[in-house]
Amino acid sequence: MELHHLRCFIVAAEELHFGRAAQRLDMLPSALGRYVRLLEDDLGVKLLTRTTRNVALTRDGERLLDDARALLDQADQLAARFRAAGRIASARLRVGAIDSAAAGLLPLLLHDFRNAHADVAVEIVEDKTVRLLPRLLSGRLDIAFVRPPTHADKRIEMRPLFNETAVVALAVGHPLARRKRLTVADITAEPLIVPDRRQRPHSHDLTIKLFAAAGQKPRIAQTAEEKQTIVNLVAAHIGIAIVPRWTARMATQGVRYVPLLVPSNAPADNLPLAAAWLKATRDPVRDSLLDLLDTSLERYAREA
Description:
alpha/beta; D-Maltodextrin-Binding Protein, domain 2; 3 domains
């Protein structure tokens, strides 16, 4: 019985949907199904019943679930203790970050961190939240700056930091690009470029929620996965886009960013940023970074 197979079973049992579970684990649904079957073959029992419409736990699956969680928690804590024991000597910090954090928060945070800890080697992995959290759970990252998921893994500590400001990206020649600020009503008739929701649910939902709060319906003309692609499409006059403020730091010729006046009834958590790490783990290097974050968070939120 392999721990990885147990981890796959636990996530499948929590989601009761192989597509969503595979996304959490950053693998294909077919691979997830194979690992669960290998575990079932190893134990000699059926753990999940699967049809074309639903997934359900069997009695054996229900009995195994709590024990499997306890076993994995124990294994994770054991691995974390040994990693923490060697952290001071190795002086290395592995940081994961979504593009917003990598462009906005991290340069400020790491500048201050290096001033106090010049001997620490910092490795940065930039990726999406759905791929960073599994790396955190497997011990390949020490801390990650992510969009907090709706249902976070219970083994992960999630500390909310701040909400990012939205701006409107327009081609320089666009009539609205000369405005000092815009409202949702101003851009209702404009073709919008929005992020692919499967890859960037928070950024996609930002547009939808802002329009809903203003009593409007967005006119979606194009979806794209990466921020740079979205900005390039704006420059090509394909449409406009609502993006985080840090996107203005991209040196894309032919694009102007105009502040967006958010409706007073709009949700306040459209673009939240959070720090994530494994619960019940001691790591002096990571904790030094968190302490610095606590003392300077207000400044970082203003400047990021």
